[in-house]
Specification:
Shape: globular
Number of strands: 8
Number of domains: 1
Radius of gyration: 16 Å
CATH topology: Rossmann fold
CATH architecture: 3-Layer(aba) Sandwich
Helix content: 25-40%
Low-confidence stretches: 1-6
Strand content: 15-25%
Strand order of the largest sheet: 4-5-1-6-7-8
């Protein structure tokens, strides 16, 4: 879907700000890059030996870079009425102030979860709840990850019954798009019910 020529939004397209969150090394940069219709902005840097002291690389084979601010991409949803502005937030604790800054004006968030490290997603969900942002959870289907039934994930995450839980492969365009559509449908219904 991505072309080498930039696409500009035409009239009648409503921009929607969405955060893409989750723990360190869960696939946020990959997800934003996979679905963006424009060349994504990435702030990845090579990890250093000093970084290994603060970023736990256990079980992260081949992880050599990390986001040091945000990733940014844009995706116009099918039908062309909504353009999602995707802000991929760095997952480490030291970047929390950025979360608060970028949450202003966001409609909601997609929390990317790693089924190998479910507990690592709790902090992102708690942070979003404290900020008053609704979210959906997308379980990223890593090749070597265990597969659990949805009800076990819902229980582990202590999700409200209305909070969407989807499975997603951050490398697959269609999969990521379906996760984003599930989030936006949920957010729009919640907004209508609140008004």
């Amino acid at each position: 879907m991505r072309s080498s020529e930039p696409r500009y939004l035409s009239g009648g397209v409503h921009p929607v700000k969405i955060l893409v969150t989750g723990p360190f090394a869960v696939g946020k940069t990959t997800l934003v890059g996979t679905v963006s219709e424009i060349p994504p902005l990435r702030t990845e840097e090579v990890m250093t030996q000093r970084g290994e002291l603060v970023d736990d690389l256990v079980g992260m084979r081949g992880k050599s870079t990390t986001t040091v601010a945000i990733d940014f991409g844009r995706r116009t949803l099918p039908g062309g009425a909504l353009a999602l502005y995707l802000f991929g937030m760095a997952g480490q604790e030291r970047f929390v102030p950025l979360w608060h800054d970028f949450a202003h004006g966001a409609l909601g968030a997609l929390v990317l979860a790693d089924p190998r490290r479910v507990q690592d997603s709790f902090t992102a969900m708690t942070r979003l709840e404290e900020m008053g942002l609704r979210y959906a959870v997308a379980v990223n289907q890593f090749d070597d990850a265990p597969h659990h039934p949805d009800h076990e994930y819902r229980q582990a995450f202590d999700l409200d019954p209305t909070t969407p839980l989807v499975r997603c492969d951050a490398r697959d365009h269609g999969s990521v798009l379906r996760a984003l559509i599930a989030l936006v449908e949920y957010l729009l219904v919640a907004r209508q019910e609140a008004s």
